[in-house]
């Protein structure tokens, strides 16, 4: 077998493989002889069909089958021989060869990218230092009270944090637009549920009031139909209600599943949950900074085929195959690049996947389900799902190694739990 590889630009490669004629011809002959023992043809006894007859009737078909088989097997041998890792399945073209002629085929593909030299860590990260304070726990208790609040109608002008029930109808340039109206819609003033300026203009309105609100949609509003345009909303206020918060007592604790220990047990559980959330928030922020730094410090070209494959995976995760691929391509390319860099860091520094951490993460995910032990078993019986967890764990391990051992400039910064939560919400939004 003779193999030659041509660099056709970037990560693209063209590999030509020539297979000796004997390998193909011998396999064709062997198959035809085998068929002569089993093929039934009119005029011949079973097992007595002459090879030349088999050749005339089935020779072309058998040769094509053998060619496909030989190409598949020699393709893998050639890739291994040359030490090449294709990104995705190669496209193969072959020139049909007659008996006695060598088989020659051409495979085109993109190769997996590799970083040249060592990974660069020329960037800095900020590590948040946070402690759960008493006021943080109290704020969380207040949020839980708001979740359990009731609403009492009042005969006074609406104030911030009140709930108004409204009808509204909006127009842009005198014309209706998608989602421009609603009836008897409850709206908490200050919740930022509506476009900026809408809720603010309803402060001071009483039940029965009718108002016209002048609003300008932001330039980055998701709907291009109204983005950056001025709108008029006719609003009718049906009612105004104030929030009535429950007392923080034994009954309140029971509403959240606390059967023993009352308010103190609820407080302890809230604190423990916040500690877990804090741990996740710190991990997430560090991971985001490390990954951004690695991408900037380590330019890497990635195969278009891998990016397209990642786009399709993102579409599946979003649950919408019809989602515009161009909107996901940037995310997909970033993920592929990070995969290359993370893999290279793990290889260069002998970072091995920790099975105990995989188990811990699977059990953490399962804990939110009714029967966690069944969920754990399901993960370990589903290689695709388990691979996702394993990827997340190796990423965590790499991030930790980068922060602790790479020489990256780590700056500690004291902040608050609420500030960290707000920052996370903004980055997601």
Task: Characterise the protein shown here.
The protein is α+β, with helices and mostly antiparallel strands and 429 residues long. It has 3 domains: 2-110, Trigger factor ribosome-binding domain (Alpha-Beta Plaits, 2-Layer Sandwich); 124-131 and 260-428, Trigger factor, domain 2 (Orthogonal Bundle); 150-244, Chitinase A, domain 3. The protein is built from 11 helices and 11 strands. It has helices at 21-36, 51-82, 134-147, 250-254, 262-297, 304-317, 325-348, 355-366, 372-380, 383-405, 417-428; strands at residues 2-9, 12-19, 91-95, 103-110, 124-129, 150-153, 163-171, 181-188, 210-216, 230-244, 409-414. Strands 6, 7, 8, 9 and 10 form a 5-stranded antiparallel beta sheet that branches. The protein has a 4-stranded antiparallel beta sheet with strand order 1-2-4-3. Helix 8 packs across helix 10 (383-405). The longest helix is centred in the middle third of the chain and has 36 residues, at 262-297. The mean pLDDT is 88.
Task: Provide the residue-averaged pLDDT.
Answer: 88
- Poorly predicted parts: none
**Oligomeric state of the chains?**
single chain
Helix amount, in percent? 40-55%
CATH fold annotation of the largest domain? Trigger factor, domain 2
Number of strands: 11
Query: What is the CATH top level name of the largest domain?
Result: Mainly Alpha
Quick overview:
With 429 residues, the protein is α+β, with helices and mostly antiparallel strands. The protein is built from 11 helices and 11 strands.
